[in-house]
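Handoff note, outgoing to incoming analyst
You'll be picking up this chain. Sequence as last confirmed:
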Amino acid sequence: MKKKNILIALIVFFSVILFLYSIFLFSYFNIGPDRLMPNKCLLTSGLSCHAKMTTIGITMRIINSLGQDIQNIKLAFAKCPDEDGIASGPVTLANGESGNYTIICTNVLRGAKILTDMTFNYTSADNQKTQSVTGVLNHNIENPILSFSERFKKIFIPYIPILISLGLVIIIIVLSILPILLHKENLKNKKKK
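Most recent structure output, in case you need it:
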């Protein structure tokens, strides 16, 4: 009976260790919900945006659905300091029109995903009131420039925690079944004697 309690305690101990180790691996290799989230480009209601990102920069299409014409447009990205963060594109957008804005931002577009704040400043054509809207861009980068180690991490690393966890689960299952098999073997030996 004492051996059975010790075995149960070991199984619980290894299960807790497995759980904590999995959490460590997922956090160490930055595998989390933010990497699994879809691309998003958010501004205020009335302004919709669609982004395309490459290793050269960001191209964003903004559609004006505010119900009024806007002018003096400036679009800035927080993570593009090399170009003062200002994107080039149309200065005015009529209601219902769309415009493409581009910024070259090569120094921060390494890797596979970018998360940056953006600011959209404009003046209303009707009442000349200046507005400033903030938004978020969370997007995958198309054709990223990856070094060998970054490619290795992107391809193989996500599977390592899963494989280690599966291996530990198999070990725990074997450790939990082994006493049962040994107990049956002891019963057979006692019957033979």
